[in-house]
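Intended use. Records such as the PepSY-associated TM helix domain protein entry shown here are meant for training and evaluating sequence-to-structure methods. They are not intended to support clinical decisions.
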Amino acid sequence: MRPLLVRLHRWFGIGTALCLFVAGLTGAAIAWDHELDAMLNPTFFYARSDAQPLPSLELARRVEAKDPRLQVTYLPLAVEPGHALQMMVLPRVDPKTKQPYPLDFNQIAVDPATGAIQSRREWGALSIARLNVMPFIYRLHYTLFLPFTRGIDIGTWLMGIVGIVWSFDSVIALVLAFSSLKAWKKSFAFRVRRGAYALTFDLHRSGGVWIWGLLLMMAVTSVSMNLSEPVVQPIIKRFSTVTPTPFTDPSMLPGAKPDEAPIAREQVMTLAERARADKHIEAPAGAIYYAPMLHVYGVGYFTAGGDHGDGGLGNAWTYWNAQNGQPLGAQIPGKGTAGDLFMQAQFPLHSGRILGIGGRIAISCVGLMVAVLSATGLLIWLKKMNARRRTSSARKTAARVVQAQTESAASR
């Protein structure tokens, strides 16, 4: 049984090493994406003026009035003092061509006191320019920038499959590390004075053992992040119900055309405030989101700057029919079925935000360790492969010498 597990571990590791190396390094960085982005791009994060900010709904109206080609799709409803208001935008449909207006950006930073656009960028663009580098790293983390092909997001599927293989390989690695009672001490040790190869081997084996639980958690949650609907939710539904949302259940979607004008944001906000009281949501409404293709509004509840949901299971959201304002469900952290709670925990666990700053520090360290484990695994494989080649070459050379000696003796 052990030889089979060794082969599986070897080939699973080789097959996923490059993907996990990239995911580990990028994951360590994006645990601090907001802070690093703000440090690199102060004009995108900090307001030019220090005057009293205008209401966010008014700022959105000004932006859309100034450039009728676009519509604001994600709007924070409050801004941290001194910060710019960052909005996501999409192009409207040109009535002449029936095609979306050409825009080379999907995110803007607005001065909250005037509504002037300070900066704009294409979030997730294939670019390592300073303005784009953090969104680039974020998208690289879960897609590797592989393309859509025939409606399939190849990168998202690939990284999800890597997560599945990683989950199985983590279990195999633990079995190999504790193959006998006598070996358990070695599986925790680091032989610092035994040379480079021994330390490399111990970094790979013992390093993985020390944080094995965190590695398995990262593997499982990575599958949940990338393949929630096609893989994870069907499995969870075998054991518990999962409350549907418009983004997971197409039957809940309004029957409106994508270019049909939605109801006003102000109307949705009135409904969202009532829902907040009915559902006993403590946090204020923090952002409103509009999905044009689905014709659905979402309202998130959090204080300014809390859009990532640091601490606990994240933020509450309510969903609304953008055609008539009818409620389309809600996600309230800590409430719902066992399946709901499991799904709510996936991003907070994967990002470390479930434990706040301490969790993010831990996830950064785990990300770096994932890169180390991937690199050391490849180094161990290459060394053993070279050793096998040298042994095979030595055997062939010895065989040729014996054959030559035999032929020489026979010819005498």
